[in-house]
Design a protein that fits this description.
Blueprint (H helix, E strand, L loop, with lengths): L16 H12 L4 H17 L6 E3 L2 E3 L5 E3 L8 H5 L2 H19 L10 H14 L4 H28 L4 H22 L2
Helix pairs in contact: 1-2, 1-4, 2-4, 2-5, 4-5, 6-7
Keywords: Membrane, Transmembrane, Transmembrane helix
Length: about 190
Amino acid sequence: MGPAPAIAYVDSDLASETVTGVVARLRSDAGDVDRTYKILEEISKIITEGKGVGGTLTYDGIKLGDGIAIADEDTTIYNPGLTLLTSTEKQRLVSAIVDNRNVGLSASPPGSGWSENNEYAFGYLKTKLDPLHMHELGGYLGILPYYGAILYLAALYVQKNARDVFPLAYGLCALGVFGPALVLVASGP
């Protein structure tokens, strides 16, 4: 008889209570313009002030509870909370604000679940938390190695068997790799 199975994932194991609380409130208040805006302001305070996030900010950099410095750049003084947030916390916040926005935009009648102020706050937070658009690109980057390998093999086949059209095939393969990423980023969350 082996050891008892352990729970592999708990909602709070990789995120602070502050982040999990904000995410839960974003989900429960989705579609309510005023409450959503207040929560988005609270997320902004987490980023700009480090409100409710563990660790300390000193002149030596950011120090977490275990005493390891994770940043010593001068830019951390502008957004200390952004430096204190883990990548998992940032991903959770981005997913929650994107989901909240989608619910707000799909509210009936149109405009009743999302305002211009909410959109401005969303844009600011999305830019700070996900500047490289990983939320949009996540699924595509998961299949990119396989998709890229198929296109590479196709280009090699054309290079070997139809040299006259290889420059065109090479350009189409490059467009096939980078085109979807550009479309995903341009279309937004």
